[in-house]
Amino acid sequence: MDPIRIELPTGWSMGSVNAYLFTHPEIILVDTGDKAEDAWEALVDGLAAHGVAPRDISRVVITHPHVDHFGSARRIIDESDAMVWIFEQGAPWLLESSTLWEQRANYYRDHFLPRTGLPAETRQLIVAGNEQLRSMAVSVPEERIIPFRAGGELHMGGMGWQIIHTPGHASTQTVFYQPETRQLISADMLLAVVPVPIVEHPPAGRRDRDPALPQFMRSLAALEALEVDRVYPGHGRPFDDHRAVIARQRERIESRKAQCLELIREGKSTIPELLEIMYSHQPPVGRVTGLWMLVGYLDLLIDDGLVREEELDGVSRYYPVPDRP
Ligand SMILES: [Zn+2]
């Protein structure tokens, strides 16, 4: 059977989030919406429209541990015998959620944000936004979690879905691909618009973070190679022609990256200067998304060897790498 889309409200500007329901041979829900009461009510109604109640669910599968995708997992397992299935690398975000959120907050506050050179007020807004996300995370007890590996398969709707690790928007994100029916549950990896490459704190034992947008580009290429007839995204309506969507996104990213390089060649060397020009269409308080994208373009340019980063008085500066003869 095909996944049944249940659209749930979120408190965020991106609008709704999708959960996907399989009713046969067992009742499986992929992603849950956030923990807010209106999202829960919409989920209960959406399930009821297919003759299902939360207590009937036997498996909750999470694409990635962001609060809009797993916020109601705890409530579902409290009302049912369901187990929560999630990629092994994402499981800690369900288990030790407050520890990890604290690590991220510390990284933003003490390392990442000071180096951006952004004013204290903007930095506080970003830390406060992170704090709000943390408050929406509800942990899941270990005995109710079944971690899965990339490269394996999940059985949903009577078919085998390949588990593909697609870092970029979240380092722990997985998508599910059904090769016979050519369906892709694409989470927030492939949406109609480019998802935000969120800056994450470095993995344990490492000093540097993983650059998110370069990872996203590689994940995009991996999805482009798949034969897909129908995409079931984490937000928005299902769509087909995934290659056209991917081509459009790549073109957009390439052109913004080129614009960023041009500005650096003109002598703009700091994040606040670049943000001011490239995101002038957004009000200063709403530029967090812009910041994540800009950091992504800079990561790509550094990866390409076109730009180098230098720290001056604790703030990152970006300079063009001269063309070698
Ligand atoms: Zn999402």
Task: Report on this structure.
The protein has helices at 37-48, 67-70, 73-79, 91-95, 97-116, 120-135, 212-224, 242-265, 271-278, 288-303, and strands at 4-8, 17-22, 28-30, 59-62, 83-87, 145-148, 153-156, 159-165, 174-178, 183-187, 230-233, 307-312, 315-320. By secondary structure, it is α/β, with parallel strands linked by helices. The chain folds into three domains: 4-95 and 139-240, Metallo-beta-lactamase, Chain A (4-Layer Sandwich); 97-134; 247-320, Winged helix-like DNA-binding domain superfamily/Winged helix DNA-binding domain (Arc Repressor Mutant, subunit A, Orthogonal Bundle). Strands 1-2-3-4-5-6 form a six-stranded mixed sheet. A five-stranded mixed sheet has the order 7-8-9-10-11, with no helix packed on it. Strand 9 and strand 10 (183-187) form a beta hairpin. Helix 5 (97-116) packs antiparallel against helix 6, helix 7 (212-224) packs antiparallel against helix 8 (242-265) and helix 9 packs across helix 10. The model has no long low-confidence stretch (mean pLDDT 94). Zinc ion is lined by residues 17, 66, 68-69, 188, 234-235.
